[in-house]
Amino acid sequence: MDKMKLGAKPPQLVLPVVVMGANVEGKPNYCTVAWVTIIDDDPPAIGLVLGKGRRTMDGARENGTFSVNVPGTASAAAVDHCGLVSGHKQDKSEAFTAFYGVLGTAPMAKECPMNAECRLRNIVEFEGTNLVVGDVVELYVDRDCLVDGKPDARKIDPLLYVMLGGPYLSMGDKVADAFKVGKDFQGKRPAGQCGHR
Ligand SMILES: Cc1cc2nc3c(=O)[nH]c(=O)nc-3n(C[C@H](O)[C@H](O)[C@H](O)COP(=O)(O)O)c2cc1C
Question: Quick one: which atom of ligand 1 is closest to the CA of 79?
Answer without folding.
Answer: 31
